[in-house]
Amino acid sequence: MTTTTTAAPGSRDERLVESGLLRRLLTRPELGALGGAILVWIFFAITAPTGFLSLRGTASYLEVASHLGILAVAVALLMIGGEFDLSVGSMIGLAGATMAILSTTQGIPLYLAALVALVIALGVGFINGYLVIRTKLPSFIITLGSLFIIRGLTIAFTRMITGRTQIGGLDRVDGYELMRVLFAGELMVGGARFRASILWWLLVGALATWVLLRTRVGNWIFGAGGAPEAARNVGVPVDKLKIGLFMTTAFAAWLVAAIQITVVKSADTLRGEQQEFIAIIAAVIGGTLLTGGYGSAIGAMLGALIFGMVKQGIVFAGVDADWFNVFLGTMLIIAVLVNNYVRQAAEKARR
Amino acid sequence: MKWTGKMYALGLVAAMFIGMVVAACFGAAPAPVSTAEAPAPAQQQDMRDIRIVVVSHGQASDPFWSVVKNGVDQAARDMRVQVEYQAPQTFDMVAMAQLIDAAVASKPDGLVVSIPDPDALGDSIRAAVEAGIPVISMNSGSDVAKELGVLNHVGQTEYEAGYGGGQRMAAAGATHALCVNQEVGNVALDLRCQGFADAMAEAGGTVEVLAVELADPVDAQQRIAAALTANPDVDSILTLGPTGAAPALAALEEAGLLGQIKLATFDLSPEVLEAIRDGNMLFAIDQQQYLQGYLPIVLLTLYKENLNTVANDVIMTGPGFVTQETAAQVIELSAAGTR
Question: Which family does it belong to (chain B) (predicted)?
Answer without folding.
Answer: Belongs to the bacterial solute-binding protein 2 family.
